[in-house]
Amino acid sequence: MRGYVDTDWGQLHYRRSGPGGSGGPGGSGGPALVLLHESPRTSAVYEPVLEALGAHTTTIAFDTPGFGQSDSAPADQPLAEYARILVQALDALGVDEFVPVGMKTGSSLATAIAVSLVGTGRVQRAVLYALEQPDEESTEYWAANWAPELPVTADGAVLQYLWQKNIGLYGTDDPRALLGCVADTLGNLERYNSIYPAVFRGRATTWSDNLALVEAGVELTVLRPPWARMTLDIPIEFTDMPGTRVVEMPVSGQFPARAPREFTAAVLAGAGLGS
């Protein structure tokens, strides 16, 4: 099912599957799963795994504020404020204990949500995307340059720009995935870059928050691709964080679409719901 929930920033759109879990009314005893997408995608990226995850517990995938069918975020908000709004949405949906699951931007949001609830018992586990030790110079560079304003011109140059940018991220072996990335950006062009400054400038905080979660006893499962990069010639170097559990994924790019069984198994195990 799909629906909307009211927050201080307007309505958030979500997809939902499954029975209840202790995270929702009519629960079956396990924590809910809360899926948070990368930018500039939407909750639709989780469609390939929603039914499988929902067979185990309530599973909710949000459109992040400013993306998909959710209302926009106010300008220049830090990740902690995005986390507050997402928790507000979960409260309105009756979700108590849950496991945040995030990929890329969604991973930073999952960390911000989890650290905001330390000590409440609501988040005891989280599933994150591969971790990078922050570098102040590079994070400030990407905050300023990763997602520029994109003019729409008669020659359609924006289409080629976005296609080439996503080739830099993902390569060319899955053209339909590239198409989805481009389409989601075009459908959200006026606000596609709204969250990136918070994500990049918040990397040091995200790193320290993850360390704090480990110290607090929150179990962190990290899904790591075989490779990743910012552009064709700028690779991403991942870092092992002590106290986390790393799962090596068989593919790069969109785990739910490209490796749905492996992603589902990793999420369920990380949430303590595996058979």
Architecture, according to CATH? 3-Layer(aba) Sandwich
Outline:
globular
Named CATH topology: Rossmann fold
Q: Taking Cα atoms only, what radius of gyration do you get, to the nearest Å?
A: 18 Å
**Main pleated-sheet profile:** 5 strands, mixed
Number of helices: 10
Give the N-terminus to C-terminus distance in angstroms: 25 Å
Query: Can you tell me the CATH class?
Result: Alpha Beta
Low-confidence stretches: 21-27
DSSP E strands, number: 10
Provide the number of structural domains.
Answer: 1
In percent, how helical is the residue content?
Answer: 25-40%
What is the succession of H and E elements?
A: EEEHEHEHEHHHHHEEEEHH
- Which structural class matches the secondary elements? alpha/beta
Strand order of the biggest β-sheet: 1-2-4-3-5
Q: Any idea what the CATH superfamily is called?
A: Alpha/Beta hydrolase fold, catalytic domain
Q: Which range does the strand content fall in?
A: 15-25%
Mean pLDDT: 95
Q: Describe it for me?
A:
The protein has a single domain, classed as Rossmann fold (3-Layer(aba) Sandwich). It is 38% helix and 17% strand. It has helices at residues 47-54, 79-92, 105-116, 136-145, 157-170, 175-186, 196-201, 203-215, 255-258, 260-270, and strands spanning 2-7, 10-17, 32-36, 59-62, 98-102, 125-129, 219-224, 229-231, 234-235, 245-248. The strands form three sheets. A five-stranded mixed β-sheet has the order 1-2-4-3-5. Strand 1 and strand 2 (10-17) form a beta hairpin. Helix 2 (79-92) crosses helix 3 and helix 5 (157-170) crosses helix 6 (175-186). Residues 21-27 have low confidence and may be disordered.
